[in-house]
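[recover] target loaded
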């Protein structure tokens, strides 16, 4: 059985944010881009974004800070692999959260940590999904 995927036209989709394009994030972001989903991306090591920018120059925009990603997008995916990375980046993400902003956190942290992050995002009027 063959599955057919209909990719949207990039003009019809608002950009999504993507924070963390390391080993896991790169594949996730690539799949979104393959389906014409424009992305605003950021990574702590800026050069990690280079392959996405080269392969999808019309769909991918790199910014200088995580705040810029969240400010530019209604939905931001975050794929930070460690608690240390999350602790370093999450305050910047949170600073741009407000009504109409959704943060999709794709990490494996303790339930307590995810509940803390949910409470922080919700307190600012945003939505937190894990």
């Amino acid at each position: 059985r063959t599955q057919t995927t209909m990719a949207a036209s990039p003009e019809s989709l608002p950009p999504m944010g993507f924070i963390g394009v390391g080993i896991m994030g790169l594949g996730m972001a690539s799949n979104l881009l393959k389906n014409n989903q424009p992305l605003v991306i950021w990574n702590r090591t800026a050069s990690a974004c280079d392959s996405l920018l080269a392969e999808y120059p019309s769909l991918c925009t790199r910014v200088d800070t995580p705040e810029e990603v969240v400010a530019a997008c209604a939905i931001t995916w975050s794929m930070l692999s460690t608690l240390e990375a999350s602790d370093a980046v999450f305050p910047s993400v949170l600073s741009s959260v407000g009504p109409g902003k959704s943060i999709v956190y794709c990490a494996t942290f303790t339930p307590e940590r995810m509940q803390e992050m949910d409470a922080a995002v919700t307190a600012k009027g945003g939505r937190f999904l894990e």
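[recover] notes: The first strand starts at residue 16 and ends at 19.
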